[in-house]
Amino acid sequence: MTGMRAILAVVALVLAALALPAAVGAPAVAGALDLYEPRSDGAPEPVEPAGPVEHDSSKPTAAVVVGERGAVVSDTLAPYEILARTGGFNVYTVASEMQPVPLTGGLDLLPDLTFAGLEELLGGSADVVVVPAMPDVGQPTTKPVTDWLVRQENDGATLLSVCNGAAVLASAGLLDGREATAHWLRIDEWESTYPDVDWVRGTRYVDDGDVVSTAGILSGIDGTLHVVARTLGADAAAQAARAIEWPHHDPDGASPIEQSQLEASDAVVVFNTAFGWDRPRIGVQLTDGVGEVELASVFDTYGQSLAVGTVAVGDGAVQSRHGLTFVPRAETGAGLDRLVVPGTTGHEVEPGMVATHPHREPGFAYDAVLQDLARTTDVATARWTAKALEYPVDGLRLEGEAWPWTETVRPLALALLGVVLALAGYALARRWRRRPRKAAADPSGHREGMPR
C-alpha cells in the first residue's frame, strides 16, 4: 500500500508540473499556428485593380489561383514573379471573387481576375495553373477552386502544385493514380487522407506529364523553373533563376533532397509558439514596385518562424514590380516594435521607427531575412524556419543567440510553480484532516466519550 501511495504521489506531482504549462501554452499554440491571420478590422474597403489587365494572345497564359480563405505567400508570389520575369507569359492571379484574400503573414492580395473573368479573357483554359497551399483543404469552402481546377485540367492546362497545394489537387481527385510530392511535414498526412496518390519523398519536384508537384514552399521555385523550361526553353529558365538569384537551379532535372523529419532541435518552435508571450510585432512597409519574391521573403520567413508577427503597413493599396495589388492592414507602424522595408531602400519611413532594409545587398531575398531573424531571435529559430521553407542554409552565416532561453525557462518556471501549489494544497489538506474535533454533547449535558 505504501508503494502504491508513493507511485500515486509521483504521478500527481508530474500532472501538477504539466498542468500550468499546458494551460498557458495550449491556447498560445492554437493562435500561433493559424498563419492565415484574418484582418482584425474585417474586410478592407473596396479596392480597384491598378488598371485593365493587359493580354498578349501570342503568349501562353499562367494563372496563380488563390482560395477565398487565402494561400501561402511564397507559394503564390515566387512562382508569379518567376513566370513574370521571363516575359514569355501572361501571368494573372485568379480567385472565385474579386476581393482581397489573405496570404500567410497577413498580406492581403487583390486578385487580377475572377475565374469567370479569366475564362472570358481567354475563351478557354489557361496554359499553366499554379496551385499554392491553402488553409481549407478538403472543406466546402474550396469547392469553387477545385471545381475550376477540374475544368482547367479537362481543357488541357498544365497544373503546378506548390508545397501542400498538392493536397488541393488530391482533394479534387486530380492526382489519383499519379505520382506527386508535398511538404515534408504533412506528406504522411496526405498519404493517409489520399491513398490513391503515389506520394514521392526526397525530391524537389515530380513531373507527371500535365501535373507537376513540388515539395515544401521554396521547392516551388524549382518546379516553376522546370515548367518554364518545358514551355519556353532551358535558357529562359536559367535567366529567371539568375533574375531572382536562386542558388539551387539544376537544369538537369529535379534535385534530390534529404527527406526532413522532426528532430529534437525542432522543439524550438514549441517554445516559441507556446511561451513567446512577448513575441515582437514587425511592420512590413508596402511600397510600389517591390519585388514579389522580396515581399514573400519577409512575410514568410518571419511568419514560418512562429516567433515574430508581421503587419502590412502602408498608406493605401500598392502595386508590386509586376503589377500585383496589395492592401495594407495598418496605416502606420505605431505600437509595433520595428519596421522592415522589403525591396527598394529609397522610401522614407516614419520618424522614430527603427527600419531594417534586408535587401540592400544583392543575393537571394530570403538569405538576408533569415540572417536578420537569427540576429533578432536566435539561430535555432532561423534554422527551423529554413527547414520549414525547405531552403538549405549550410553555407549561410547565421549569427545570434543559440537558443530561445527565455521561452525555454518559462515552462520550467510554470512547472515548478505547479508543483509548489500542489504540495501546498496537499499540506493544507493534511492539516484539515488532522485538526482537533469538538466532542458532540448528548441531551443530558454529558459529552460523548466522557465518563458519566
From TrEMBL:
It comes from the Bacteria. Residues 69-222 form the DJ-1/PfpI domain. PROSITE patterns: TAT. Residues 40-59 are annotated as: Disordered. Residues 43-52 have a biased composition (Low complexity). Coiled coil: none annotated. PANTHER family: ARAC-FAMILY TRANSCRIPTIONAL REGULATOR, HTH-TYPE TRANSCRIPTIONAL REGULATOR RV1931C. This is DJ-1/PfpI family protein.
